[in-house]
User: Which sequence fits this backbone?
């Protein structure tokens, strides 16, 4: 056993691996995400998910190039901060990791992806949903979760088929996120032969939407989609009610939050819907089993994206197996070709590294909370 | 037609909040020639202090009715903001009174950052839900126009405060001293006016108005946030310039005009430009008007009536 403690998190890994018989060569897999700060629980959750995947692989026994390998997780804290993310990415590259699971947030994943691209190391993010990440056309960027544009498309489908809405109006906040989401929705509607009845714009600092809502009211929409965050979405929903607009409110994951419910308060009703990238655990093919094993192993419940993190780590291992090599330069080309059944569903990447399936879940406000709709 | 009426009401509600804040800018400018960029942040402090006071009242005096709770919260926030306005003037601006004009201007920006940062430390970066003590549910629509009790309150309270301020400036001893100080510091002090006191009073009154505006703003939109003062502050400053900075009536007129232009601009910009521009350009509408007014009337809409300065 080599005595190299890289981070407190490593200690956990070392302990876990303590009982394993030596001699098998070690392949290091990096993990990067916020392990401190306000969303540390999300980062930790994903770290555990990746770790469980590696431990499972070790228990199963993976042989590459005729040798039985041992996978080891090297966890780094990027504090969900773009600058720290690049430092951490460089550190992982220098440590010679065979692949990376991460980062957690889009704000960290995007700057870090450049470093991995230069080093030629594949990085699979379990939870960064910004379309920008894969639009960079990097060879080494992959994600196992739906991106924001896939959310827009899913919402368009639901609005037409589920709600039978024909008069749909769209508002966005002109941010990369909000506009991307709204454009994807408008695009999908157009492909289905439906033209939006109104397209209005605001910004991510606005509080007053009365003017644009009054304008939309005149075209009598039966649903209004807002591409943006909860801090604007909630007042917007309130002002819809104040102006006597009875259209349904549709939002993306930025509005799919507890904060939205808190701020919009009395304006929330069963006419409020939102989408979230990813699918709830009880709908994942391997969700129930994963949840139990996760709890048994780490003593905590799955927070959010741990199953995605598990699949991200597994994707790296699958590609290594397919290429019969742990050298990123050799197995990178296999990342596009792999296809397997993961915990969250079928995992396969398209040409830009996005998830082919990209599960999106629709939520409806009911009983004081967001409830996943079938 | 209904749409136009509704847009007018929307514009008046937003405009009267702008006007109330613009009064604070214009009063200080009238007397000191200083653009007090921290004024918008006093609005923010007003809203957050009221929020905190109302929260405490709801815990310790849950039987107090909705309106008394709101009034108590408002009073606390007005007093806190008055103290804050006084302190800012005393510590940050008074020492720079005879410094080159840029120095107090930069200081004002510094004070603005300081207030925002302190508020961020105390209240965090999250949006807070502002308790809805006056109903925000729309009343029976009149001629197809929807308006909520909060919005009616905003219109009434703003109008009352504006009239009260006019009376204060034009009919009272303090007002006369304020006008004298605005006209000429040195001469006023030679005539026995304690100009330091008058300037402090100006800041205190302006801050009280900002506190009221902050509480009304948050009551209407149901949110409060450490950076919420920035946009209304900027718009109110624009309104003050539009009306003629230093002129009280101008601030009111500027605020209302800006509110209306924004609202009607956002509503009709697309039709007026034949689909070339859309509502993401709603702000250029307000600034276009500002530009045109300033080209033809460099002192703003009502800028020439210097004797009216507070």
Assistant:
């Amino acid at each position: 056993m080599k005595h190299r403690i890289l981070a407190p998190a490593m200690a956990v890994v070392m302990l876990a691996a303590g009982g394993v018989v030596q001699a098998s060569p070690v392949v290091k897999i990096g993990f990067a995400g916020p392990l401190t700060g306000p969303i540390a629980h999300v980062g930790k959750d994903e770290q555990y998910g990746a770790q469980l995947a590696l431990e499972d692989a070790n228990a199963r026994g993976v042989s590459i190039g005729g040798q039985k390998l041992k996978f080891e997780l090297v966890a780094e804290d990027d504090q969900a901060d773009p600058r720290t993310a690049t430092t951490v990415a460089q550190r992982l590259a220098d440590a010679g990791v065979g692949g990376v699971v991460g980062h957690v947030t889009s704000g960290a994943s995007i700057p870090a992806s450049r470093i991995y691209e230069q080093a030629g190391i594949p990085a699979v993010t379990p939870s960064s949903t910004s379309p920008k990440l894969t639009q960079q056309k990097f060879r080494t960027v992959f994600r196992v979760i739906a991106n924001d544009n896939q959310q827009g498309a899913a919402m368009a489908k639901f609005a037409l088929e589920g709600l039978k809405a024909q008069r749909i109006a769209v508002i966005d906040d002109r941010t990369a996120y909000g506009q991307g989401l709204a454009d994807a929705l408008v695009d999908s509607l157009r492909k289905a032969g439906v033209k939006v009845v109104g397209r209005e714009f605001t910004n991510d600092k606005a509080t007053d939407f009365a003017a644009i809502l009054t304008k939309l009211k005149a075209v009598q929409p039966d649903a209004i989609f807002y591409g943006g965050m909860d801090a604007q979405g909630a007042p917007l929903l309130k002002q819809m009610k104040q102006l006597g607009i009875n259209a349904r409110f549709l939002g993306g994951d930025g509005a799919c939050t507890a904060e939205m419910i808190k701020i919009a308060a009395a304006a929330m009703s069963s006419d409020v819907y939102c989408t979230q990238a990813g699918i709830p655990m009880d709908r994942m093919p391997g969700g129930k089993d994963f949840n139990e094993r996760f709890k048994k192993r780490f003593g905590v419940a799955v927070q959010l994206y741990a199953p995605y993190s598990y699949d991200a780590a597994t994707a790296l291992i699958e590609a290594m197996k397919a290429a019969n090599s742990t050298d990123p330069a050799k197995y990178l080309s296999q990342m596009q070709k792999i296809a397997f059944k993961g915990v969250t569903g079928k995992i396969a990447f398209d040409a830009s590294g996005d998830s082919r399936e990209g599960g999106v879940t629709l939520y409806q406000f009911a009983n004081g909370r967001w409830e996943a709709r079938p | 037609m209904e749409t136009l009426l509704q847009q007018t009401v929307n514009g008046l509600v937003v405009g009267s909040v702008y006007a109330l804040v613009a009064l604070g800018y214009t009063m200080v400018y009238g007397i000191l020639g200083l653009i007090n960029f921290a004024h918008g942040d006093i609005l923010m402090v007003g809203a957050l202090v009221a929020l905190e006071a109302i929260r405490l009242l709801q815990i310790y005096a849950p039987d107090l009715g909705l309106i008394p709770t709101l009034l108590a919260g408002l009073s606390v926030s007005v007093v806190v903001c008055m103290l804050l306005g006084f302190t800012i003037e005393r510590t940050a601006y008074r020492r720079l009174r005879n410094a080159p004009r840029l120095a107090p201007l930069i200081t004002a920006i510094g004070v603005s950052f300081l207030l925002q940062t302190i508020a961020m430390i105390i209240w965090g970066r999250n949006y807070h839900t502002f308790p809805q003590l006056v109903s925000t549910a729309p009343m029976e629509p009149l001629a197809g126009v929807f308006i909520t009790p909060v919005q009616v309150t905003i219109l009434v309270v703003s109008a009352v405060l504006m009239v009260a301020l006019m009376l204060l400036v034009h009919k009272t001893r303090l007002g006369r001293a304020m006008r004298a100080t605005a006209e000429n510091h040195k001469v006023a002090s030679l005539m026995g006016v304690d100009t330091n006191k008058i300037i402090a009073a100006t800041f205190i009154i302006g801050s009280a108005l900002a506190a009221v505006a902050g509480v009304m703003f948050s009551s209407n939109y149901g949110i409060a946030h450490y950076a919420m003062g920035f946009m209304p502050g900027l718009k109110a400053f624009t309104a003050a310039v539009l009306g003629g900075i230093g002129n009280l009536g101008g601030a009111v007129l500027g605020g209302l005009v800006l509110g209306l232009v924004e609202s009607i601009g956002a509503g009709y910009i697309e039709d007026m430009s034949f689909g070339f521009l859309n509502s993401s350009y709603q702000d250029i509408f307000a600034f276009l008007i500002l530009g045109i007014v300033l080209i033809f009337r460099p002192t703003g809409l009502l800028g020439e009536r210097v004797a009216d300065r507070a």
